[in-house]
């Protein structure tokens, strides 16, 4: 092997600056999708407000940090209660502990609506399952029509809950505009 061949097969860095350092183990980072954050900003801010890419990225990062902070606090509350599962009451307690108690009523209202929707979905699923097993003497077409009608009702309920959420957000929007 010639000296020229050994240089090409076994390259050595000329300085230590050329060697890439080994990656350090960092904590897991979380950032919600930028599109979701932009949608939230669009709904929360007046239409005349523009948000730059940098500020949207900063808000996205702040959201991720807040989620970790809230989760950590809720986890501490669950552990104090000798539980391994974080429940809604732990999240509400964490909000209060972190001095965000003004959001607790909105969260309680959201949880109530969410639980209703989940219960409705479960009941519909059970009805369809029972109908397919032959519990009802209906034909498949009739079952499908009933499911479509229930789906329309569910869509109307979701629109109603969106309207309620908008009512909740309106005072926040007005407060931000006044500031």
Automatic annotation (TrEMBL):
Keyword Nucleus included in the entry's annotation: yes
Swiss-Prot/TrEMBL keywords: Nucleus
Stored InterPro entries: CBFA_NFYB_domain, DNA_Pol-Epsilon_Subunit, Histone-fold
Principal subcellular localisation of the protein: nucleus
Tree of life domain: Eukaryota
Gene3D superfamilies listed in its UniProt record: Histone, subunit A
Domain Transcription factor CBF/NF-Y/archaeal histone as annotated: residue spans: 33-95
Comp. bias regions, Basic and acidic residues: 115-147
Region (Disordered): 1-25, 115-179
Keyword Nucleus: yes
Subcellular location: Nucleus
Compositional bias (Polar residues): 1-15
Cellular-component GO terms for this entry: nucleus
Protein's name according to its UniProt entry: Transcription factor CBF/NF-Y/archaeal histone domain-containing protein
Annotated source species: Cyclotella atomus
């Amino acid at each position: 092997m010639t000296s020229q061949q050994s240089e090409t097969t076994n390259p050595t860095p000329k300085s230590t600056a050329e060697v890439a350092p080994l990656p350090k183990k960092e904590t897991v980072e979380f950032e919600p999708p930028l599109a979701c954050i932009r949608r939230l900003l669009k709904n929360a801010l007046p239409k005349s407000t523009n948000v730059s890419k940098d500020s949207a990225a900063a808000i996205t990062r702040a959201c991720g940090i807040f989620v970790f902070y809230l989760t950590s606090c809720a986890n501490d509350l669950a552990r104090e209660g000798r539980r391994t599962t974080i429940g809604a009451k732990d999240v509400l307690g964490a909000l209060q502990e972190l001095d965000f108690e003004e959001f607790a009523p909105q969260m309680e209202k959201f949880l109530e609506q969410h639980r209703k929707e989940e219960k409705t979905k479960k009941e519909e699923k059970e009805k369809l399952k029972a109908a397919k097993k032959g519990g009802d003497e209906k034909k498949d077409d009739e079952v499908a029509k009933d499911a479509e009608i229930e789906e329309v009702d569910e869509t109307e309920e979701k629109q109603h809950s969106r309207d309620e959420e908008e009512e909740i957000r309106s005072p926040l929007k007005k407060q931000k505009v006044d500031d």
